[in-house]
Task: inverse folding
């Protein structure tokens, strides 16, 4: 077992502790210690304050505190508690090479909270118990316990890790996970990471999720952080700095690690050459701005042709509502130093936005009220030859095909955060290793009735799976970034709402929610194609079966839909959910039970089990209102079709 732990000196203003697996190693090992962290506190000098991008000890203003010692967030002086990996936000970056196996020992040093760690975007082919989802693929790691995550990434790319218990990642528990190519187009020393998330320094994540704040918008952000750094107002808190050489290719790996916000990213004055999304190569696409939804990743180079050396700004805005209108109240900033070995003077440049823009990843074909903006929806990206050659199946593909319509929203009258009206209830056991103790019956749901249940779909072994992810009906309010565990899927087509002349959005008519109700009044729990000839997906106009983009997280547009495809060749139970944390926590999720008769051969020995303790003796039994003893235990075998 060969591994190397290094202090990585990034081209910014701090040292970041990270892990690099040696290129010659077959297997590497590292660890993540899950512990509390705190904003604006130095371990030696205590509370700190910010002044002119520097930090000083509150108790003695003559002491300048090194930036690398403090989780600054937006520089707000009141300390906020974090949950972290290795006490930093973001946690340490993990680097390894394609096809290397890795062991990550996760040690839970928290006092009160259980935890798991999910590697977002890693398909976990052959390692279903390593996906890191509490009560789906494992029992949570209790305080004081450890868990050995051993797996082998099959594809290179930009990924990330985060907690998958409740909304813990909103508290700082995330970091980058980079799988490198053996031969890289851009040398490692010219690759840099951008992690974006929103920040609220007054209220913690649980307070925002659960408390009645008397009319305060719990989704309201106070600042935007880039690699854990931002500023509030004009408090001159430390910001992220990047340095690039104008004569070299420089690759940026951008990740939206946020809990809810859709971000608009740009470097005013410099175009972005997008190379990959969600870890997979595409045909190069040059844009001015990138819309990035929670959990998505985009790798890009800077188009520095005919650019002057000097200081540029990276700029991030939050886009709000179904029309993605820019929130002008706050923005995130990082400094980009463009240098030239033959030209050493650094000067601020005029980097005003262009009047005509090209924007990637719009959830509509035309940007509302923005005639000078050209939209490139993600479905218009094309995989390049390298992506088309990437395929990995654990079991053989069959000739069978199934289609599932899944509608994401908050259907009336209950308004549940749900999929097809099914509000997901988490198992109380590890579904993967204790399947006989999971009840997946959802008898209370029908075409216009919502219900609460452990919603699951069975994917038949080896079959082709077409999913039509819709966002229509009475519960459609905004777009949803949908993430599928265990797979990278093909995005075959996206359907969008119509943008009217006055900038309003009219939902697509391609989906039929009900034969008796108009779409706007239907829960749309049993949607179908309005044109029945589309039931053969080859007949769908504009479908791309030749070189579709590969994604693990895709936006399902308000008033529209996304058509994706996988093959059920990765045995396991895979979680699929909206990556807006509130939506997931409140039930917008489903389990995919895939090729389950094949799964046992891929499970390690000794996986922990867990369950509620509900004694059945009379002294502990509950009594119903009529005085009779009432037990209700549901243990149902998962059905394999």
Result:
């Amino acid at each position: 077992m060969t591994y190397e732990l290094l202090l990585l000196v990034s081209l910014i203003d701090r040292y970041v502790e990270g892990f690099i697996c040696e290129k010659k190693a077959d297997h590497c090992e590292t660890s993540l210690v899950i512990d509390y962290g705190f904003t604006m506190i130095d371990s030696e000098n205590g509370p700190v304050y910010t002044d002119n991008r520097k930090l000083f000890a509150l108790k003695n203003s003559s002491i300048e505190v090194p930036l690398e010692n403090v989780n600054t967030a937006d520089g707000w002086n009141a300390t906020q508690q974090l949950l972290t990996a290795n006490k930093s936000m973001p946690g340490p970056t993990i680097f390894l090479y394609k096809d290397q196996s890795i062991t990550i020992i996760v040690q839970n040093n928290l006092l009160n909270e259980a935890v798991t760690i999910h590697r977002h975007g890693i398909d976990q082919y052959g390692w279903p118990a390593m996906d890191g989802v509490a009560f789906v693929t494992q029992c949570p790691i209790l305080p004081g316990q450890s868990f050995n995550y051993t797996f082998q990434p099959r594809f290179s790319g930009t990924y990330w890790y985060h907690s998958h218990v409740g909304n813990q990642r909103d508290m700082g528990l995330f970091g980058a996970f980079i799988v490198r190519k053996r031969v890289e187009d851009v040398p490692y020393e010219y690759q840099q990471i951008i992690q974006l998330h929103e920040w609220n320094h007054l209220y913690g994540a649980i307070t925002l999720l659960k408390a009645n704040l008397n009319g305060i918008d719990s989704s309201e952000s106070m600042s935007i952080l880039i690699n854990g750094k931002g500023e509030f107002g004009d408090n001159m808190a430390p910001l992220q700095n990047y340095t690039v050489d104008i004569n070299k290719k420089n690759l940026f790996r951008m990740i939206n690690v946020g809990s809810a916000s859709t971000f608009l990213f740009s470097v005013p004055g410099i175009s972005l050459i997008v190379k990959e999304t969600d870890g997979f190569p595409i045909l190069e696409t040059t844009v001015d701005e990138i819309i990035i939804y929670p959990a998505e990743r985009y790798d890009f180079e800077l188009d520095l042709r005919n650019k002057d050396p000097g200081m540029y700004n990276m700029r991030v805005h939050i886009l709000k509502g179904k029309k993605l209108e820019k929130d002008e109240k706050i923005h995130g900033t990082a400094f980009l130093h463009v240098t030239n070995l033959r030209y050493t003077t650094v000067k601020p440049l005029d980097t005003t936005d262009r009047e005509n823009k090209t924007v990637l990843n719009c959830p509509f074909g035309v940007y509302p009220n923005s005639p000078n903006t050209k939209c490139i929806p993600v479905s218009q990206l094309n995989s390049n030859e390298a992506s088309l050659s990437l395929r990995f199946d654990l079991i053989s593909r069959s000739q069978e095909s199934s289609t599932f319509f899944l509608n994401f929203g908050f259907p009336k009258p209950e308004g549940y955060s749900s999929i097809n009206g099914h509000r997901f209830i988490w198992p109380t056991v590890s579904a993967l290793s204790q399947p006989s103790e999971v009840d997946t019956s959802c008898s209370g749901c029908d075409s216009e009735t919502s219900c609460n249940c452990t919603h699951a779909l069975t994917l038949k072994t080896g079959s082709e799976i077409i999913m039509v992810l819709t966002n229509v009906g009475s519960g459609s309010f905004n777009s949803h970034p949908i993430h599928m565990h265990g797979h990278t899927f093909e995005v075959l087509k996206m359907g969008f709402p119509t943008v009217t002349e006055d900038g309003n959005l009219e939902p697509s008519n391609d989906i039929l929610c009900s034969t008796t109700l108009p779409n706007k009044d239907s829960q749309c729990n049993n949607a179908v194609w309005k044109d029945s000839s589309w039931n053969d997906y080859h007949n769908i106009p504009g479908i791309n079966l030749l070189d579709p983009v590969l994604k693990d997280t895709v936006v399902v547009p308000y008033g529209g839909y996304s058509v994706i495809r996988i093959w059920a060749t990765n045995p396991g139970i895979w979680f699929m959910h909206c990556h807006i944390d509130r939506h997931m926590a409140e039930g917008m999720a489903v389990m995919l039970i895939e090729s389950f008769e094949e799964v046992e051969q891929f499970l390690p020995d000794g996986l922990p089990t867990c369950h509620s303790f509900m004694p059945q003796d009379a002294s502990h039994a509950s009594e119903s209102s009529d005085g009779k003893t009432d037990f209700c235990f549901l243990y149902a075998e998962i059905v394999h079709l």
About this structure: The first strand starts at residue 4 and ends at 9. DSSP finds three helices and 47 strands in the chain. Helices lie at 205-210, 385-388, 581-585. Confidence is low (pLDDT under 50) at residues 1-16, 618-641.
